[in-house]
Amino acid sequence: MTVLNTTFHVDRRVGVEFLAWLRNEYLPAAQSSPSVSSTRLMRLVEEVAEGADSYALHLEGSDGDALERWYQQSAQPLLRGLFKRVGQRVVHFSTYMEVI
Predict the structure, then answer these.
(1) Least C-beta-crowded within 10 Å: which of 15, 63, 85, 95?
(2) CA dihedral (32, 97, 52, 84) positive or negative
């Protein structure tokens, strides 16, 4: 099992807009993909940066290559659309992990 972990740091001024985008665009795209078997969204309890909230999104899939293709072909365009709207008020990084 492979997990695509994407961590987002979100300026609170765009927090409502970010969560709406995540719930209405990004998560539905992930959940409708055969590459993604489950999703989990978490908010970090600790404040990483003043005035920002941080979230970790886990997408699980049995085929790591298929999950990576989904990220490149589907997630990247969605993320570009978000960044056009909010600029650098949201930053993210993604890592692939293997469940052991």
Answers:
(1) 95
(2) negative
